Every structure is written in C-alpha cells, then in structure tokens.
Amino acid sequence: MNQVPAIKLNNGTLMPQLGYGVWQVPDAEAERAVGAALEAGYRSIDTAAIYRNEAGTGKAVAASGLAREELFVTTKLWNGPKQKWGRDQVLRAFDDSLAKLRLDHVDLYLIHWPRPMRDDFVAIWKTFEEIAASGRAKAVGVSNFRPADLARIAAESELVPAVNQVELHPLFPQPELRAVHAERGIATEAWSPLGQGKELLTLPAVTAMAAAYGRSAAQVVLRWHLQHGNVVIPKSVTPARIRENLDVFGFELSAADMAALDALGAGTAGRRIGPDPAEFDV
Ligand code: NAD
C-alpha cells in the first residue's frame, strides 16, 4: 500500500513527499531499478537530462502498466553546455527529455543549476513559464538556487517556482534557505537526503537513535526530513534498501530526537557534499 503523503505545490499540483532518485544509475540499469521502485510502491521518480537515464526511466514507466495520473515524473534542464540558452534551445531540450521519457508531459521540470556567473537563468525561467502554461509540465521549478537567485526570479518574472531542489540533510540543513522557501511558497526538495549514505549514517547519534526505534539509520534520517516537511528522493539500486527507504510511515521521531538531529547541523554551513551553486558551472 502506498502511504506516501502528498505535498500541495503552489499551483495546486500534488507531489508525493517521498520519491525515488536515479542519479548515477546507468541507463541500462535504470529500467530495472526504476521498475523495482515502482513495484515497491514509489510513485514519484526524479531524473534529469544529465543523468542520461531518461530512456531507461521511460521504459520502466511504460512497462509498469500504471496509469499516468498515478505517477509523478521530474526531469531537469541541463543548462550545462556553454551556449546561449535561448527559448528555442530550452524548448528543444525539453522536447528531447519528453521523447526519451516517452511522455507527453512531465509533472515537474527544473532548471538544474543557477550558474549565476552566466546571468541567464531569468531568461531560461521565462521559457519555463511558457512550458508551464502549455501544460506539458504540470509544475516548474528550480534546483540549487540560492536566496539571491530566488529573489531575482521574483523581481523579474511572474511565476514563483513550485519547488527548489537543493542539497539538504542533517549535516547540511540549510535553515535560512528553508525559511526563504516558506516565505515565498516554494516547496523544499532535498537532494542527497541520506548524505549519500556516507558519514551521516554512521554517526553514533544517528545509529543509537535508529536502534532505539528499531529502525535503520536511513529510515531515521528520512523521518527527520518528512517531519520537517521536506520532499525527499533517496536513491538506492538495492531492492531491499529501495523498500526500506519507503517504509518510513509507521513511526515518528519525538520532538527531542528531531532537535538532536537538528543539532548535528549546527555550525556545519561548510559541510556540503556536492558543489557550491555560487561556483558550479560545468
Ligand atoms: P542519497 O542521499 O539518496 O544517498 C544515496 C546512497 O546512500 C546510495 O547510493 C547508497 O550508497 C546509500 N543508501 C541508500 N539507501 C540506503 C539505506 N537504506 N541504508 C544505507 N545506505 C543507503 O544521495 P543521492 O543519490 O546523491 O541523492 C538522491 C537523489 O537526489 C539523486 O538520485 C538525484 O535524483 C537527486 N540529486 C539531485 C541533484 C541536483 O543537483 N538537483 C544532485 C544530487 C542528487
């Protein structure tokens, strides 16, 4: 049974609060991995043009036999190549993603990185507004945007992004950014929600809490996100972990345990795992 609650985005679209991320899953494996996730009960899939597994993801979606309206598919514009991202280029990239996914619409389309040094994300966003108006994306949003980038979008365009997908986990909790999202009506989606399965899941504070709840460290961390209202997209290619990461609705962390996990991130502003959006431009 799928117990994943839905978050209502700022345009009324419903988004499952927990989904399956497919970064670093090779295209040839994506069909099996996404198929296992759909079989386990996930209904939201997070891919991107640069992950180069939209085709495998699309095959799994088609093979699942699930009704399109039961699924929530996210992909992202790879505004990577140093070219001018005019309207035509953005629309062509979007068409290409839809074709690979074998879909006539996605549920969420994101600008993958702000690349502020190029000064072109507002122009890209204007084409995203057009894509949203066409209905070929039920909602549009951004990824890795900083408060200043969100302020520019607000000042220079009409549409508020539905989602900002950013690195976020107990060791990099981004409280200021979450407050900005709340103020602007933007849903917070956490990438690398498990801290990529590294240090975070081995911290004594986390493993002791997991033992106390009779759950895994990953499940405890996912509960922390859900109770903060974050959308999460944990990734695994191991069927048992794929199921485990979805099985997080039968328990709740106490307020004291939430506070203990919050405390892990205090003073860790520099502890991101991934690139800094202020500098990232490849
Ligand atoms: P994650 O935090 O989801 O960690 C995934 C890793 O954690 C796995 O590879 C595995 O090693 C481990 N793991 C998973 N489940 C586990 C479990 N139950 N127990 C123990 N270990 C477990 O990291 P991620 O893959 O970087 O992020 C998730 C998704 O976020 C990606 O697949 C992608 O869809 C998205 N993402 C987006 C961006 C972006 O720029 N927008 C960047 C990175 C990731």
UniProtKB/TrEMBL annotation:
A matching Pfam family: Aldo_ket_red
Record's keyword annotation contains Oxidoreductase: yes
PROSITE patterns the record matches: ALDOKETO_REDUCTASE_2 (PS00062), ALDOKETO_REDUCTASE_3 (PS00063)
Keyword Oxidoreductase carried by entry: yes
Keywords: NADP, Oxidoreductase
Classification via InterPro entries: AKR, Aldo/ket_reductase_CS, NAD(P)_OxRdtase_dom_sf, NADP_OxRdtase_dom
Family per similarity comment: Belongs to the aldo/keto reductase family.
The name this protein goes by in its record: Aldo/keto reductase
